[in-house]
Design a protein that fits this description.
By secondary structure, the chain is mainly alpha-helical. The protein has one domain: ABC transporter involved in vitamin B12 uptake, BtuC (Orthogonal Bundle). The protein is 78% helix and 2% strand. It has 14 helices and 4 strands. Strands 1-4 form a two-stranded antiparallel sheet. Helix 5 runs antiparallel to helix 11 and helix 12 packs parallel to helix 14. The longest helix has 27 residues. The protein is globular, with a radius of gyration of 21 Å.
C-alpha cells in the first residue's frame, strides 16, 4: 500500500514538472537565464548592479503598456497607436503645465485624454464596425500629427517641474525606484483580475469565440470597447511617468514603441487570434527584449542592426504563435 502511495506521488510530481516544462513562461525563463549566462562571459559590464537597474527601469514603464496590450490581444484586438498615445500624454500634460496648471492635474488630464483616444478607437471598432488594426493605424498617424502640431515639432522643456513630481520617475525608496514599484503594482493587480475577476473572464470568452460569447449573453462590443479604453489609459500613465523621468515632452518620443510592445506580448504567449495570453508571460517577453537590447548595446552592435534583430524576434514569435494555433485547431 505504501509503495503504491509513493508511486502515485512520484507520478504526480513527474506530471507537475511536465506541465511546468511545457508552459511557455518556463521556456522564456530558460532563454533569459541562458542569455544572461552567455552575456556574463561576453561582457564584463553586463553582470553589474548599474546595468540591471537600467534594464529594470527601461522595461518597467514599457511593461505598463504591455499589460494593456496583452489584455487587448486576448480580446482579439491590437493597438498600433500606443507609442503615439504615450507621446500625446507627455505632450498634453507638459503643455497644460506650461500654461500654469500644477503637474498632478496636468498629468491627470493627459491620462484622461489618452482614455478619450481609446474611447474614440473603441467607437469606430464597436459601432462603425472597423477592425482594430485599421482603426489603430489611423489613430497612430492622427495622434502623432497632433503631437507635432501642438509642439510645432519642438521638444517642451519641463525643468521647472517640482521635485515631488520628478520623484515619480526619478526617485526611489530603500533603493527601489518608484517606477519599478508602480510597474509591479500594475502587474499584480491586472494579473489577479485577469485570473480571478468575472468581468475579465469575459475578455477570454470574447477573444476565443465572439459569436458563442454573444449567444451566451456577453455584450462583446462592451468588452472590446472598455478593453480598448484601458489599453490607451495605461499608455497615458506610461507617458506621464516618462515625462516625470526625463523632464521633457518630445513630439517624436515613442516612435516604433508599438513594435516592442506587441512583440513582448506575443513572445509571452498572447495570441494574435485572441483568446489566450497571460500578464506574467508578457512581462517575461518584455524582459527578454530588454536583455537582448542591453546585450546588443554592450556588444557595440549598430542601432540599425538592433532594429532588424528585434524584427526577426517578432517574426519568430508570430510564426510560433501561428503554428501553435494551427496545431490546436
Amino acid at each position: 500500500m505504501a509503495v503504491d502511495t509513493m508511486t502515485a506521488q512520484s507520478e504526480r510530481r513527474v506530471a507537475t514538472w511536465k506541465r511546468v516544462g511545457s508552459m511557455r513562461e518556463a521556456g522564456l525563463v530558460a532563454i533569459i537565464l541562458a542569455l544572461c549566462v552567455v552575456m556574463t562571459f561576453a561582457s564584463p559590464h553586463f553582470l553589474t548592479l548599474g546595468n540591471f537597474r537600467a534594464m529594470l527601469m527601461s522595461f518597467s514603464v514599457e511593461g505598463i503598456v504591455v499589460v494593456g496590450m496583452t489584455v487587448l490581444l486576448i480580446v482579439g484586438g491590437i493597438d498600433l497607436a500606443v507609442g503615439s498615445v504615450v507621446c500625446f500624454a507627455m505632450v498634453f500634460a507638459g503643455s497644460m503645465f506650461m500654461l500654469g496648471l500644477d503637474p498632478w492635474t496636468s498629468s491627470l488630464l493627459g491620462i484622461l485624454m489618452s482614455a478619450v483616444i481609446g474611447a474614440i478607437m473603441g467607437f469606430f471598432v464597436t459601432v462603425v464596425g472597423l477592425n482594430h488594426f485599421i482603426t489603430s493605424l489611423a489613430a497612430m498617424v492622427i495622434v502623432r500629427g497632433l503631437c507635432l502640431a501642438v509642439t510645432k515639432g519642438t521638444p517642451i522643456s519641463l525643468f521647472t517641474l517640482p521635485p515631488s513630481f520628478k520623484a515619480v520617475g526619478q526617485g526611489s525608496i530603500y533603493g527601489i525606484p518608484y517606477v519599478i514599484l508602480i510597474f509591479f503594482a500594475v502587474v499584480v493587480i491586472f494579473d489577479f483580475l485577469l485570473r480571478r475577476a468575472t468581468a475579465f473572464r469575459k475578455v477570454f470568452y470574447t477573444g476565443s469565440n465572439e459569436k458563442a460569447a454573444l449567444y451566451s449573453g456577453i455584450k462583446t462590443n462592451h468588452v472590446k470597447f472598455w478593453v480598448t479604453v484601458m489599453c490607451s489609459t495605461l499608455a497615458g500613465v506610461a507617458g506621464v511617468i516618462y515625462m516625470s523621468r526625463f523632464g521633457s515632452a518630445t513630439p517624436t518620443f515613442g516612435v516604433g514603441m508599438e513594435l516592442n510592445i506587441i512583440a513582448a506580448a506575443v513572445i509571452g504567449g498572447a495570441s494574435l487570434n485572441g483568446g489566450s495570453g497571460t500578464i506574467f508571460g508578457a512581462i517575461l517577453g518584455i524582459a527578454l527584449l530588454s536583455v537582448v537590447s542591453s546585450s546588443l548595446i554592450l556588444l557595440d552592435v549598430s542601432v540599425y542592426w538592433q532594429d532588424m534583430i528585434k524584427g526577426c524576434i517578432l517574426l519568430a514569435a508570430v510564426s510560433v504563435d501561428h503554428y501553435l494555433h494551427k496545431r490546436k485547431a
